[in-house]
Amino acid sequence: MRKFRWALLWIGLGAVLLLFSVALAQDTTIDTIYGLITVDQAEVRVGPDFAYNAIGRLVRDTSVVIIGRSGDFFNRWDGRQWLKIQFGDSDAWLYARLARTSVAFNSIPLAGSRLLPRDRNGRVPEGFDLSSEICTQWQGGFTQSGDFNSGDRITVTYPGLQGANVYSVIAISPTGNRTPFDSETTEAVILLEDLPWEGGTYTWRVAPYWTDSPRRYNWQQVCLLQTGGTFEKAYTGPYTPTPPPPG
User: Fold this and answer.
1) What is the pTM of this model?
2) Which fold has domain 33-107?
C-alpha cells in the first residue's frame, strides 16, 4: 500500500512538472507572430510601399516571423497595410494581403514606418532614396539651446532627411497641449509667446514632411515623430491676486 501511494505521488509530481514545462514553453513563444504566404512568388521589399525596391520573393506556404506592421485594416485591403518580417539576416516588408497572420492585422505592433508621399500625379517625389526604408535613413543628433528663464526663445536642431522639404517640431505641454513650430531647415525656434500659459516640463518632438502645397493640411508626413528633448517653462497666464487672509 505504501509503495502504491509513493507511485501516485511520483506520477502526480511528474504531471505537475510536465504542465509547468508546457506553460513555460508557451510563455517563451507567445510574443512571436507568424505569417503564412498565401500566393506564389510574393514580392518582398525594402520598405512598406510598392515604390520601394524589391529584394526577393517567397513561395506559397512559406512561414515567416512578423516583427511589426504599417497601416491599419478597416474594411478592405487598399495598399496601405504592410508586414515587417524577418528575411534572411535582415528585415524586409511584405504586402499584408499576401499572407495569413497568426493574430489579427491591427493587433500586430506598429513598426514605425509609413507609406511614401505622393505628388499630384500619384508618383513618389524625386529626391527620396528608395534603396532602403526611408525612415531608417533619418538618423542623427538632436540639440537644444536657449532658456525661457533668460530669454523668449529656444532653438532646436534635428537630423535632415533626404527628400523631405519641411519639418514640424511639436511642443507638448505637461497636460498634452500640442503647439507646432515649422521649418524648412533642420533648425526651428520655439517661441514663448506661442506656447500655452501652462507651466512645467515640456517635451519637443519632430517629424519630416514633404509637400508641394503652401497649405499645412496638405503636408504629407514621411516618418513618425521622434523625441528631441525637454525644456522648462514657467506659468505665463494672467496674474492671480492672492486672496486676503480670513478675518
Assistant:
1) 0.77
2) SH3 type barrels. (2.30.30)
